[in-house]
């Protein structure tokens, strides 16, 4: 009898208390999101954290299928798992749970069977990660670094491939510029995008984080000029591009790709690199399909492109993007 009692005590999984769950959600909400829309909602129900897409924050003109919205939620889901591990907790994730409403993307049990050390450096990493759109240096990211980032992303169930050949990079730059031209003449997209720049409130992109654009012929951006002094090309000298995707262009794949993006971004930040998403080529369906065919050779469906490079040493840090209050995104 005593032996059985001992065995049960050894395997008992301690559930995370409310204060830990609140802290984890707060850290998860530091994740990157399209135009900093932060399109996620968290709920504590039946002992689990439930992640839902906030469809009120979907971009109907730029993201009618919800791909970028789901990628953003996937990044928040990874951030939560990363934060839990850093704080010494385990997670069990059920993605797209059966029987749940379509907006519910995941349920997460947070538990542990033994006390673990806190990895404070990883918590700092979550707070350090940002989107720095300033021009990268001309120093290229070594091939082995790109391989490591891709391998890390693949562990989350996505596909990842660095575009390193001159022919692939040239083709990708051409298609990216074509997509940007297409978006520049779409009035609905431009108006929608503009609504998320320099907003009053805890979301959107502050002008202080958007580079100025003194020579639009040489430094094209999907956003209007900001207040951050700099110039850069769509794909510039030292940049390397990583394509992320999956077997299908669907919600399950997007969610996994969002998790992979977060993993890649955090590990790049840890190594001193900078990451900038390139979603505009994917938002134009004909361009997305052409990149999948001619650049990726049809090996997987493209969901997102990421520019990876080095920022100049000594550059000043950027202000943090605003975040929605926890009370708006977390229902207990």
TrEMBL record:
Protein name: Nitroreductase family protein
PANTHER family per record: NAD(P)H NITROREDUCTASE RV3131-RELATED (PTHR23026:SF123), NADPH NITROREDUCTASE (PTHR23026)
Recorded superkingdom: Bacteria
InterPro entries: Nitroreductase-like (IPR000415), Nitroreductase/BluB (IPR050627)
Taxonomy of the source species: Bacteria, Bacillati, Actinomycetota, Actinomycetes, Propionibacteriales
């Amino acid at each position: 009898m005593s032996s059985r009692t001992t065995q049960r005590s050894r395997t008992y999984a301690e559930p995370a208390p409310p204060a830990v769950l609140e802290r984890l959600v707060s850290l998860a909400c530091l994740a990157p999101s399209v135009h900093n829309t932060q399109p996620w909602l968290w709920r504590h129900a039946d002992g689990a954290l439930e992640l839902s897409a906030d469809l009120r924050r979907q971009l109907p003109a730029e993201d009618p299928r919800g791909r970028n919205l789901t990628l953003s939620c996937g990044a928040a889901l990874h951030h939560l798992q990363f934060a839990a591990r850093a704080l010494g907790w385990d997670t069990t994730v059920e993605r797209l749970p059966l029987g749940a409403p379509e907006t519910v993307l995941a349920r997460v049990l947070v538990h542990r069977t033994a006390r673990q050390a806190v990895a404070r450096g990883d918590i700092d990493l979550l707070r350090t990660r940002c989107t720095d759109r300033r021009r990268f240096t001309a120093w290229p990211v070594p091939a082995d670094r790109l391989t490591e980032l891709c391998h890390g992303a693949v562990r989350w169930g996505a596909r990842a491939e660095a575009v390193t050949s001159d022919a692939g990079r040239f083709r990708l730059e051409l298609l990216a510029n074509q997509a940007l031209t297409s978006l520049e003449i779409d009035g609905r997209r431009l108006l929608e995008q503009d609504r998320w720049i320099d907003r009053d409130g805890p979301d959107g992109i502050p002008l202080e984080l958007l580079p100025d654009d003194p020579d639009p012929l040489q430094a094209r951006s999907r956003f209007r000029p900001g207040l951050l002094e700099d110039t850069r090309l769509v794909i510039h000298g030292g940049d390397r591009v990583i394509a992320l995707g999956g077997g299908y262009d669907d919600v399950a794949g997007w969610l996994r790709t969002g998790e992979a993006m977060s993993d890649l971004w955090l590990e790049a930040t840890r190594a001193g690199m900078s990451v900038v998403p390139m979603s505009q080529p994917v938002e134009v369906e004909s361009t997305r399909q052409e990149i999948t065919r001619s650049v990726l050779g049809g090996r997987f469906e493209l969901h997102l492109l990421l520019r990876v490079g080095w920022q100049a040493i000594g550059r000043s840090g950027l202000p943090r993007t605003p975040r929605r209050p926890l009370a708006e995104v977390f229902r207990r």
